Amino acid sequence: MRYLRQTLTIAGKDLRSEIRTKESLNAAVSFAVVILVLFSFAVDPSADQIKEMSGGLLWLVFAFAGALVLNRSFARELGNDCLDALVASPVPSSALFLGKALANFVLLLIVELVALPVFGVLYNMSWARQPLLLAPVLLLATWGMTVIGTIFSALTVNLRLRELMLPMLIYPMMIPVLMAAMRLTTLLVNGEAIPADDQIWFRLLVGFDVIFTSLAVTLVDVVLVG
Amino acid sequence: MREKILYGMGIVAGLWLLRNLYVILLGLPDEALQGAIYRILFFHLPSWFTCFTAYFLAGGASILYLWKKDLKYDTFAVSAVEVGTVFTMVGLVTGMIWARIIWGIWWTWDPRLTWALITYIVYASYLMLRRAVDDPTTRARHSAVLCIFAFASVMITYKAIDWWRTQHPGAVLSFRTGGGTMDPRMESIIYQNWAALMLLTAVLVAIRMRQETMSREIEGMRRFAHAI
Question: Is some CB atom of chain A closer than 8 A to the CB atom of B225?
Answer without folding.
Answer: no
